[in-house]
Write a structure and sequence with these properties.
Elements (H helix, E strand, L loop, with lengths): L2 H18 L28 H27 L5 H17 L21 H4 L1 H22 L4 H22 L6
Helix pairs in contact: 2-3, 2-6, 3-5, 5-6
C-alpha cells in the first residue's frame, strides 16, 4: 500500500472511530492515554516516533560518556589531551544537533519510554535558550581544548557541565534514587 493510501486509510479509521462517539481513554492522572501504536507514527522527517526517541537517547548517552571521559581525565594525575579532545568534539557536535532531537510528537504523551519532560514542547523558548547555552559552552570548550592549558580546559568543562545540568534540571525526568 502506498504511503498516501496508508494515510488515507488511517484518516478514514480515525473519522469512523470519532463518529462512534464515546469517551477517550485516559491515564490515572486524567491525561489522554497514548495510542497503542504511537511509537510507530511517522514524523515529517521520515522516521517513526520510536526511532526518533532512540536516536535522541543514543546521542545523549554519547554526550554523557564523553563528559565522563573528560571528567575522568581531569581527575587523573596526568590528563591526556589525546583522550580529551575527541570527547570534546563529540559534545560540541551533539550540542549543535540537540534541538533537532525533540520534534513535536516525541514527548512522554507518545507512551514511548523517554525521560524528556513535556515542558520541552510546552516552553520551547526556554528549551531553545538552554540548548543554545549548551552549544555556546561546548564551542568554548572546543576552543580551549585546542591548547595545552589543562586548568583552562578544566574550568570550561565546569561551565559546560553546568549548561548540561541546567537542561537536565528543567527538562529531564528526575531519576529515582
Amino acid at each position: 500500500m502506498t504511503k498516501n493510501l496508508q494515510l488515507l486509510a488511517a484518516a478514514v479509521a480515525v473519522l469512523a472511530l470519532a463518529a462512534c462517539g464515546g469517551e477517550s481513554a485516559t491515564t490515572d492522572s486524567g491525561a489522554p492515554a497514548p495510542a497503542a501504536d504511537a511509537g510507530s507514527a511517522t514524523l515529517p522527517n521520515g522516521v517513526t516516533v520510536k526511532q526518533q526517541i532512540e536516536v535522541r537517547q543514543k546521542a545523549l548517552k554519547e554526550m554523557g560518556a564523553a563528559m565522563k571521559t573528560i571528567s575522568d581525565q581531569m581527575k587523573s594525575g596526568a590528563p591526556s589531551l589525546d583522550q580529551i579532545r575527541p570527547a570534546v568534539q563529540t559534545i560540541k557536535t551533539h550540542s549543535t544537533e540537540l534541538p533537532t532531537w525533540f520534534p513535536a510528537g516525541t514527548g512522554p504523551e507518545t507512551g514511548v519510554k523517554t525521560e524528556a519532560l513535556a515542558k520541552i514542547w510546552e516552553d520551547q523558548p526556554t528549551f531553545q535558550a538552554a540548548a543554545q547555552r549548551l552549544a555556546g559552552e561546548a564551542a568554548k570548550l572546543s576552543d580551549v581544548a585546542t591548547g595545552e592549558d589543562i586548568a583552562a580546559i578544566g574550568a570550561q568543562v565546569g561551565a559546560t557541565g553546568a549548561a548540561c545540568k541546567n537542561c537536565h534540571d528543567q527538562f529531564r525526568m528526575k531519576k529515582e534514587q
